[in-house]
Amino acid sequence: MEKFKTLKDHVYDYIARLIREGRLLPDQHINENVICQELNISRTPVREALIQLAAEDVLENRARKGFAIKSLSEKDTCELYAVIGVLDGFAAKLACEHLTEKDYKDMDFYIASMDLAIHACNYEMYHKQQNAFHQLYIDKCGNSALIDTLSRSKNKLLKETYPDHDEEEIKEVFLSTNEEHREILRMFREKDKDGLAVYLAETHWRASYASYDTL
After folding, report:
1. Integer angstrom CA distances of residue 149 from 32, 35, 56, 212
2. Domains in the chain, start-ordered, CATH in brackets?
3. In the chain, fewer beta carbons within 10 Å around the N or the C end?
4. Global pTM?
């Protein structure tokens, strides 16, 4: 059963999406009035969403300056990857028995779309497709607390702009990551629950990917 979302929840999701899409950057001040205007809502749910994001360590509440996107160190990001990998693997293990042939075909479509996006250097589309790939089985894990915890953990991962990597290096890493998506799909088809849990935690969410934000 889908969780009922309040107006504050919708604002929360909107701000989190802006962060993940790179439209709000580390240390950038959040203009509450602009969000109110964009969503055509009062300030109260916006303030409530910002307070929640600050409590979850996504934002920083600066005295007399309002809210700003909190920067993550390399150590912070690697630690997040380790936690998300375990949670994602657990979600995959739980979802294994609930996926249908249509789900497998949808996941295969997302993988093909990611290949096209990588070759076109359209990394915004890549991120959208890979998020859809993972979210498909996460939503079918049957554990709402796990789904919520994964979502909040991923919200802390800021959009990567790849300043230290050349184009060919980025493509190579993204294509390698997408091969891992194919391996994940293969294990889902074979209902390899334990294999999925280990693969996602130890291979797919490994710390060396943190500087690319490929997942």
Report:
1. 26, 25, 11, 22
2. 7-69 (1.10.10.10), 74-209 (1.20.120.530)
3. N
4. 0.78
